[in-house]
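Bench log, entry 3. Co-assembly request; chain sequences pasted below exactly as received.
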Amino acid sequence: MEPKRIAPPLTDEDVMNLKAGDNVLISGVIYTARDAAHKRLVELLEKGEEWPVDLKGQLIYYVGPAPAKPGEVIGSAGPTTSGRMDSYTPAVLEYGVKGVIGKGARNEATRKAFQDYKAVYLAAIGGAGALLAKVIKEAEIVAYEELGPEAIRRLVVEDFPATVVNVAHGNDLYEEGRKQYALD
Amino acid sequence: MREVDVKLIADAVADLSKEANYFLGDDVDDALKQGLEQEESPVGKEVMNQLLENVRIARDEEVAICQDTGTAVLFVELGQEVRLVGGDFNEAINEGVRRGYDEGYLRKSIVKDPLERVNTGDNTPAVVHTEVMPGDKIKIILAPKGGGAENMSALKMLTPAQGVKGLVDFVVDTVSRAGPNPCPPIVVGVGFGGTFEKVAYLAKKALMRPLDQPNPNPFYADLEKEMLEKINKLGIGPQGFGGRSTALGVNIETYPCHIASMPAAVNINCHASRHAEKVI
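Structure output for the full assembly:
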């Protein structure tokens, strides 16, 4: 099956065109944030304050990249485990982020939030950081530099490969895939 | 006594930090290829191909296989006829980690306090396990341990009455619960016996044994095979998208234990089961 092409910012319609199991290629700008940045972003929402960068309609990539070698854009940059962001994700989607990229299962409340806010959860290949770094064409820190690998970065990607796990329709690729291949 | 300058230890640790993060062991590479051959899921096959391609890029370009270059876990076998000179042994190890992670463009993933969570900036301190052994050599194994798979690990104080079924069920359940999170296909380190802290150490140590080298005790070698078969029936598959290859191997390490106890620990490693060693 041909992968679907998506380019953030995403609209409700872009999201509703996706279904669990679809392969996508992302091109354009995505933003990185993982544990420490999420904590700060959600604290700002709780206080009713602005985020240091406007992420409405955007995709967040859960990654803490390795440092770039001289002449390179970025070091190894694969996804981190998404479940640790579960407690923050509903608030992040309510704010207006349209999708997140990570790896691993989400809890029920988070899966429901993807439905409620018409957003998408995409999985990139965990542990393929050297390969994924190849599709990242630009990288700059845009907030929380002091967090080091956990800073918020703006990445420009070209044909970044990912697979739809959860989307507004409510299916879950992990559950379906596992059921299909389980024996006994 | 043989005198060894701790500077040699720092140099070895710096080299091992880079080596372990760039070059995946042949045993794991072979297991990935074998997993690819046995994979029934088309998506799973595609994932396995990409993981092998990733390993090749890391090796050829000398970059980290995974951005999570881990906690630097070290197993040091220190010969009792060695006299260390020239400084502090523990500081030499941390100096090696500091230098290796800086020179190797490896990620610094350690926070100083579990709650305050301020990054130490140089991936120190390492976690060091030292055993004193006969001889006049120093063997250093460095294993960068990623956080995602470490988080899916578990320890259980089983009771003797639970027997071998209790152990097998605990191991398979732990992998089942981890699902797609620890970056399958995984390597499963099992500690069995000893005490509460010893069993966790054994589970980590089990991950250092090459995948093509079964437990020397035929009973446990068979048990490793049985657990692997059970795990690969779970259907989790590469990256959890469904498939046959959920684990590449199961390694069990055992130790005698108390008449009341039967501790078991499962330390999960992602497919990038990294470790490198050097003898001084």
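Chain A has one domain: 4-181. Chain A touches chain B at residues 36, 63-69, 75-78, 80-81, 83-84, 103-105, 123, 125-131, 133-134, 147-150, 163, 173-174, 176-184 (CB under 8 Å).
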